[in-house]
TrEMBL record:
Organism superkingdom: Bacteria
Phylogenetic lineage: Bacteria, Pseudomonadati, Pseudomonadota, Alphaproteobacteria, Hyphomicrobiales
Any one Pfam family match given in the protein's UniProt record, by short name: NMO
Protein name per its UniProtKB record: Nitronate monooxygenase
Molecular function GO labels: nitronate monooxygenase activity
Keyword annotations: Flavoprotein, FMN, Monooxygenase, Oxidoreductase
Length: 331
C-alpha cells in the first residue's frame, strides 16, 4: 500500500483521485472509485440545481460507505449559477472534502473550512497554487499543460510544473494532467507530488456514465487527438479532436470572436456526445493521455492495477538500479 500526506489528509487507501468532470462526475462513477479505495468527486454543476446535487450525493451514499467529495468550479459567467446554494447543499449533506477550481474561491474556502470541510484547490501555475495556499486550502491539485479542460495560459507541462510547485508548496499536492497508469503515479511521487488526479482515464472505465462509443473512441485515439480551442481568447481549453474542434480552431485563426463560435461550442451539444456516442456532435474534453489508454476496465481493476504495478516499479525496477560500488580488491 502506498501511503502519502494526501491519503492521510482525506482518509483514503490509495493516492489516486478522480477529479470533477462536467457531465461525467456522477454517483455511479464516484462510488466505484471510492469503493476501490481512491477519492472520487461528484461534479456539482453537472446537477441542474442545488436540490439535484443533494439527491446525487444521497444516491452516491447509497452506493458506497467510503469517503468521496464534490467538485465546485467557479467560472466567469453572464448569469452565474447560485454558488452559495450549491455550497450549502455540499455542507448540509455532510461532505468532508471539496475540490474547488476556477476563480479565486476565498469565500467558499472560508465557509467550507468553518464547517470542517477539507478543500483541495485545482490550479495551473505555481503562483496560483501559492495564492491558494495563503488562502487556507488544505491541498493543491496542480494541472499540467497535457490535461483535458483548462490548462491555463503558461503552457507548462507536468514534468516542469510538478517539481516547480513541490519546491514551494508546503501543503499536500496531487499532480493532474497526463496520468493513466502506474508509471505516471511513480513519476509524480518522484517529482514531489503526494498522489495523482485522473480524468480522461476514468472516463474510459466500465462505471463511467458516458456512451460506450466515446469510451472506445478514447481507447482508439492517440496522444495527438486533441485540440486547443479558445487560444485567441486567452481561455484555452484542451478538447478531443473532432470535426467541430478543428473547425473552431480554424475559425479562431481567421479572427473569429466568441459570438461567432458560440453555437458550435455550446455545452448542450457536448452533453449530447456522451449521450448519443456521436463524437462529432459537440465539443468534449479529453487529454493527451488518450495515447496511454488501451482498455476499459472497472474502476476497481484500474486502481488495483495501478497500485500493484507502482509498488512493483518501486521495489523491483528502481531498487534494482541501485548497485553498491564494489570495494577495490586489496593489493
Amino acid at each position: 500500500m502506498l501511503q502519502t500526506r494526501f491519503t492521510k489528509l482525506v482518509g483514503v487507501e490509495h493516492p489516486i483521485v478522480q477529479g470533477g468532470m462536467q457531465w461525467v462526475g456522477r454517483a455511479e462513477l464516484v462510488a466505484a472509485v471510492a469503493n476501490a479505495g481512491a477519492l472520487g468527486f461528484i461534479t456539482a454543476l453537472t446537477q441542474p440545481t442545488p436540490e439535484d446535487l443533494r439527491k446525487e450525493i444521497a444516491r452516491c451514499r447509497a452506493l458506497t460507505d467510503k469517503p468521496f467529495g464534490v467538485n465546485l468550479t467557479i467560472l466567469p459567467a453572464i448569469k452565474p449559477p447560485p454558488y452559495a446554494e450549491y455550497r450549502a447543499a455540499i455542507i448540509e449533506s455532510g461532505i468532508k472534502v471539496v475540490e474547488t477550481a476556477g476563480n479565486k474561491p476565498q469565500e467558499h474556502v472560508d465557509e467550507f473550512r468553518k464547517h470542517g470541510v477539507k478543500v483541495v484547490h485545482k490550479c495551473t501555475s505555481v503562483r496560483h497554487a501559492l495564492s491558494a495556499e495563503r488562502m487556507g486550502v488544505d491541498a493543491i491539485s496542480i494541472d499540467g499543460f497535457e490535461c483535458a479542460g483548462h490548462p491555463g495560459e503558461d503552457d507548462t507541462p507536468g514534468l516542469i510544473l510538478i517539481p516547480a510547485a513541490a519546491n514551494k508548496i508546503k501543503i499536500p499536492m496531487i499532480a493532474s494532467g497526463g496520468f493513466a497508469d502506474a508509471r505516471g503515479l511513480v513519476a509524480a511521487l518522484a517529482l514531489g507530488a503526494d498522489g495523482i488526479n485522473m480524468g480522461t482515464r476514468f472516463m474510459a472505465t466500465k462505471e463511467s456514465p458516458i456512451h460506450q462509443l466515446i469510451k472506445e473512441k478514447i481507447v482508439a485515439n492517440d496522444e495527438r487527438e486533441t485540440e486547443l480551442i479558445f487560444r485567441t481568447m486567452r481561455n484555452t481549453s484542451r478538447v478531443a479532436k473532432n470535426e467541430i474542434s478543428t473547425r473552431v480552431v480554424a475559425m479562431e485563426k481567421e479572427g473569429a470572436k466568441f459570438e461567432d463560435i458560440r453555437e458550435l461550442v455550446a455545452g448542450a451539444r457536448g452533453k449530447m456526445v456522451y449521450a448519443t456516442g456521436n463524437s462529432d456532435e459537440g465539443i468534449w474534453s479529453a487529454g493527451q493521455v488518450q495515447g496511454l489508454i488501451q482498455d476499459i476496465p472497472s474502476c476497481a481493476e484500474l486502481i488495483s492495477r495501478i497500485v500493484r504495478e507502482a509498488e512493483a516499479i518501486i521495489r523491483n525496477r528502481l531498487e534494482g538500479m541501485i548497485v553498491q560500488p564494489q570495494r577495490e580488491a586489496a593489493e
